[in-house]
Fold:
Amino acid sequence: MTKDEQNSETSGSDWIDDVVSRALISSYGSNEEPTGKITDQEENSEEDLVVKPIETYEQYPYPDEEGTINIPEIPEESDQEKSKKSIKKTIEWLAVIVGALLVAFLIKTFLMQAYYIPSSSMTPALQVGDRVLVNKLSYEFGEVSRGDLVVFKRTDLETGNETDLIKRVIATEGEILEISDGEIFITERGAKDRKLLVEPYLAEGVVTQGFVFEDLCPESVANTCLVPENFIFVMGDNRSGSRDSRYFGPVNTDDIVGRAFIRIWPLGSLKLL
Structure:
């Protein structure tokens, strides 16, 4: 190889080294080649970056906010607004109470009513302390039937006080009732033969005594009664402990309050009547 060729190769190599050196300086700020290894100082600096949070994030939830956080304040209600709300609630409660009382009054007046049994005149069907529910519309759409338990109003002739009594219907209008040998016989309207009244609701061995007073019925003989129009003849199931039509005569159907159809108390003795 000639001297000129060697000089040419040397100058070409220097030129390449010069380009690489400039590229390194431009990229890394140094002419040293990167080794691909991280020094201890660099490792420590990276750990610091990973472990230690930025102080700005500790102080504020959002790094771009300056100063304190602006939380919108909820305006407090004035005394006047509180008073208005209190009045509104009071009116609403009064409306609910009045409405409930009105519904109860309408139900009690026109539909149903509960009654307390104060005596033993209806044993064994009803005991002292039982409560029954009375349907006041039963006879607005139907007729009184034998065996029904009816509540009716009775005025005491001596005191003039009006009380509600509950008894069982034994005979209806136009029927002839006869008490003989402790048993009841019924001659139905338009019939000629009398029939023994079967009463499964009575306690075993119960007998029916005759009329306490005479002339209780418009047309009657001893222990016999022809029930007038719009009247019913009633008795208690406890025949020896009941003051009924044998004492005060037939009951006008206009005085009937309604029909007792269910015993609601005590709970364990809930039963249709």
User: Anything to note?
Assistant: The radius of gyration is 53 Å. The mean pLDDT is 79. The helical segments are 3-28, 40-51, 55-59, 79-111, 245-248.
